[in-house]
Structure formats: structure tokens, C-alpha cells
Design goal:
Order of helices and strands of chain A: EEHEEHEEEHHHHHHHHHHHHH
Oligomer: heterodimer
Largest interface: A-B, 61 and 62 residues
CATH superfamily of the largest domain in chain A: Alpha-helical ferredoxin
Strand order of the largest sheet of chain B: 2-1-3-4
Helix content of chain A: 40-55%
Number of helices of chain B: 12
CATH class of the largest domain in chain B: Alpha Beta
Radius of gyration of chain B: 19 Å
Order of helices and strands of chain B: EHEHHEHHEHEHEHEHHEHH
Distance between the termini of chain B: 32 Å
Strand content of chain A: 5-15%
CATH architecture of the largest domain in chain A: Orthogonal Bundle
Number of strands of chain B: 8
Shape of chain A: globular
Number of domains of chain A: 3
Largest sheet of chain B: 4 strands, parallel
Strand content of chain B: 5-15%
CATH architecture of the largest domain in chain B: 3-Layer(aba) Sandwich
Number of strands of chain A: 7
Shape of chain B: globular
Number of domains of chain B: 2
CATH class of the largest domain in chain A: Mainly Alpha
Number of helices of chain A: 15
CATH topology of the largest domain in chain A: Fumarate Reductase Iron-sulfur Protein, Chain B, domain 2
CATH topology of the largest domain in chain B: Rossmann fold
Radius of gyration of chain A: 25 Å
Amino acid sequence: MITIFRIRRFNPETSPSMPYFQEYKLDTERADTVLDALMHIRETLDESLTLRCSCRGAICGSCSMRINGHAALACKTKVQAMASERGVVQVEPMNNMPVIKDLVTDMAGFWDKVRQVQPWLQPAGQEPEAEYLASSESMNHLTGVMGCIMCGACVSDCAALEADERFLGPAALAKAYRFVADPRDGAGRSRLLALNEPGGMWDCTRCMECIEVCPKGVGAMDRIMSLRSRGIQAGVPSTCGSRHAEVFADLIYRKGRLDEPMLAARTFGLQNLSRLLSLLPMALRAFVRGKVPKSGPLHRAIPGVEKFRRLFQRMEERP
Amino acid sequence: MKFAFFPGCVSKGGCPELYQSVMEVYPQLGLELEEMTTASCTGAGVLQEKDRKLGDMLNARTFALAEQAGLPIMTICSTCQGVMSQANHRLTADPSYLAAVNEILNEEGLTYRGTTQIRHFVWILLEELGEQGIRQRVRRPLTELRAAPFYGCYLQRPSEALGFQDQPDRAKSLELIMSWLGLEVVDFPGKTRCCGFPLLTINEKNSLRMVASHTLDAKRNGADILVTPCPLCHLNLDGMQSRAGGQQQADIDLPIWHLPQLLGLAMGMEPKRLGLTRHLVSTQGVLDKLGSAVA
């Protein structure tokens, strides 16, 4: 199968050092991975093509790059599955990190953020005479997140990081969860307090890009949601994020449905009156444009809400 | 085909023009809808931040109500669809989890057997009406229009829960349907990215950056409008656009349309009946270009 590889090139040592796309035509086999093809290009067509790889078996996490716009391990991605109708595969370096050369990115910032969450066990109390004990269930629960190979794919495609590079990002937050959820760790509350700060667990935009691109099924966003839930349970100081979740749940309990004006008013409240007031011009414009439902701006409860509340209570009563 | 219609909170709240446009178009598509008035909010991913199992229970209740009526569910919101698809995926993959949730539902005399189908309006257009069914209903091909799609995260990810493996065209459903309406589809990288709505409360600055980035990008690629199947994306991209433009010192002025509005216009309906006058970013310039004066 003739495939055209459209590769984003960049060499900081040339002048002007602007990124550009270069195309290579290659006869590929059915079983070829994108990494096979890139190595073949480097060996036979252009020895200047620079990429990072090691194990070729989706273990080391070195060959993460964007293939057709989404991060993936080149060694785990088949050419045939990615080629467009015209036989084109586009390959670019990972996003959200500086490019060193061609497909190689600088992951120093990635490691800094992982270090920031203190990714080591911090047991509390006296050291036991033998080993620390943990239930099989709790360790099984952690195997998913411990499967992370630190390839950076989730960080590459993270929408919140694209908007603000100060965000800790999915890989570091998933790593934080790995220790918060470890029964042997004694620093859970201080970890959650640190993650409660701006740039931490509440700055995820829940876009699920990290879930989709992870080659190991770590599900970073799900871990971030679990951190939020644990933060609320642990009673860390409320933020707009945690109040939003709490008020949302309370409104559903009361009405069975969302009540947007009430959600905004109670989330921001008196603590954040200026934010609330800043929404007024938009609300007024929406009103003028007729963006008010027939039932009026404040919403009635769904019929039979009393029965519905019983279910809610039963769930809250569970152990 | 008959569906249990789940309109979602936002189409009955902050985006009433979406509900209005669906009510206008559905009878002409051969669909029969029975609105689920007693169904609750899906939790929208927010309730799940506090308690995922509680969210799954609420959605299982909705699925049980539809199952009892013997109807598949139709949603009109990417977020509702995504949250429900994910909940259904978890419930049907694990019989012991479903049994635990049913134990609670029994309180209200309900049981979910795991058979309810949940489909977004866009998927129903794609899979039930198809190209022929859509094209034959077009009275006014929108050939002068250049429109960019904007899916909303929950209609793209996670693909496993959304059934993309069995229905691969779902990944490009918007583009397909838009092209069948005769318009020029503008491709741009932001079409499957996040609009920033879930961050609006927590970090408005970052949320507005996302709004500006996608709308300006679509405009640079030549789009006259952005079309979305998600009212939450609409709230941010339309409602917060002027503020996002202010933050970036740019005059964006890109109208955001709901998909049923676009469909209705192509079917020859009046813009006002489709709620196109109820947007914060005016649609008038585009309607003028199309030669359809708003009554």
C-alpha cells in the first residue's frame, strides 16, 4: 500500500527555524506500525528525520506523537488504520510542550509537574514491624492508574493545558490520585489541600481527551473526578468548583432538574458577588433576546419529585 | 419511528430556542416523540464529580422509565447523550453493579433490565433518515453558506461508550448531515475540542480563551456560522462570545446555530419559528446573505 507521510519538521539550527510539513511516499505492509514507517523513512529516505523511540512494544512510552491530530504511541498505531482515503497519514510532535527537533519534544515541564505532586508514598505513624498491609481490593483498584507509562499523550491533547500552561495536567493529577487512594499513604489530606489550589484538580475542563488518547487505559479524567469527590468528602476549603458540584446536586435533589439562575446565584453567592454581578449584563441581553423558557426563569420541579427524592436519600444513606 | 424524548434541562432552560426548533422540525421527519416529563437531569458530569454512582442511579431510573414504555430514548444535547451513554455502558457491562442500582430503583417500583437504546437526534438523522431521507426533505439547499461543525466533547469521547466501533459514521455525523443540506462544510481542528463551558464557573479566563480560540479559528477558515448539537457549547460559544472577544481584543461576531435550526431552514421553515432571533450573537447577517428575511 502506497502511503504518504506528511510529517511536521522543525530544526532549531536552521535559519529561519520555522516548522514546516514534508511529505514522504512509502510502500507499507499491512502489519506496519507508524513507528515502523518512520524508522524506514529515516533509514532509506531521509536520515535527518528525528524521532524518539525505544521498546517498540508500547511499554516504554517514548514514541508518543500526534497522528492525524491526536496523540498516540507510534509503535501501537497501525498505518492502515490511520491512512485517509487518499492514503495520507499526518504525523506531528506532541502538543503542549516545546519541540526540540522534528518529532522530539522537551518533557522537562512534564516531569516537573509529576514531581510537584510528590509521587512517593508518605506513610503516617510508626513504621510497622513487617510490611505495610493493604487489601487486595484497594491494590487492584490502583492497578489501572499504576499502568501509566508516562508517555505524555494525555498532556499533549489536554484542552485545559492548551488554555493555561500552569494547569498541573492529567498525568500528574492521575499520579496524585495513585497516592491519595493508596491506603498505606498518610498524606491524603495535605495532598488534597495542595490539589485544591488554582491550577490543580478543579481546573480540568472534563473534555475526556486524556481518556481517549491514553494507550494504557489509565482514564486520567476519571481519576481527577475521584480526586474532586474525595476533596469534597474530606472537607477541603470550598472553591467555585466544589460549590458548583454541591449546589448542582442539591438542586437536582430538590427539583429533579437543573435551575441555572439558582445554580449561579448559590455557587458564587456572597463570597463571589462580583462574579455574580458580572453575569448580569449577559443575563439581561439573554432576557431581551427572549432566551427565557415558557415556564419562566425559575424552574419548577419535575412531577413526582417526592418519590425521586427517596431514591436520592437511599443513595446517600448507603455505606 | 417513536422515541421517548429526553429534552434535557438546558433546552428547557437557557437554550429554549433549541427545544423550539426541535418541536418545529420533528413532525416533518417522520418521528413521533413522547416527552419524558418525569425523568430527571443526567447530572451533566457535574453530579458525577460529587458521586458517580448517584449519577448512574438517576440515569438508570430514566432508562427504566423508557424501557417500561417500550421506547428508545432520543436526546438533543451532546452532554446528556454522553453522560447517559457512559452510565449505560457501565450499567450493562457489570451485572452486579446493575443489580445494586436496581435495588435502589425498586423503591420507586422500577427495574432497569439494560435494554434501552439512547440516541442523539444527530445519530437518528444519520442512521434512520440517512442521506436520502435528509436530501429529499431539503426545500432550500443552503449552497451559499459556509458552516463549521462543533460537536461538544460528550458526542466524541469516550468513543467506546458512544458506540463508534459499531457505528463509525457517528464520529463525523455532523459533517455528513451538514453536507446533505447542500452547504459548504468548513473543516477546522477545533471541531472536536472542548468549548470551555465546564470551566466557566471555576476558571472563566481559561474558559473564554477556549471560546475565542475556536470561534476565531473557524472564522479564519472561512466559516459564516458554527453549528452545534450541544446546548451547553451554545451557551458558552454564543453567550460568552462577546466577553471572550473582549479578552482577546477581537471582534468575533460568529453566529452559533443549533443543528435543528439549520435543518429547519434547509427544509424551508421561517427563521423566527426556529428561534434564530433568540441568540446573543445575531444571526441576521447570515440570514441576509441567504436571502431569508426574518419575519
